[in-house]
């Protein structure tokens, strides 16, 4: 289901840890969120 309000920007704060960015991008992908 698509919301009638589009999000134009989000901020993500991550730990400086190996693999953390991959974990977050995979979670966004699973939620069908396009980050391009």
Automatic annotation (TrEMBL):
<protein>
    <submittedName>
        <fullName>Acetolactate synthase</fullName>
    </submittedName>
</protein>
<dbReference type="InterPro" id="IPR045865">
    <property type="entry name" value="ACT-like_dom_sf"/>
</dbReference>
<dbReference type="Pfam" id="PF01842">
    <property type="entry name" value="ACT"/>
</dbReference>
<feature type="domain" description="ACT">
    <location>
        <begin position="9"/>
        <end position="36"/>
    </location>
</feature>
<dbReference type="InterPro" id="IPR002912">
    <property type="entry name" value="ACT_dom"/>
</dbReference>
């Amino acid at each position: 289901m698509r919301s009638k309000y589009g999000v134009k920007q989000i901020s993500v704060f991550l730990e400086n840890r190996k693999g953390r960015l991959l974990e977050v991008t995979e979670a966004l992908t699973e939620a069908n969120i396009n980050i391009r």
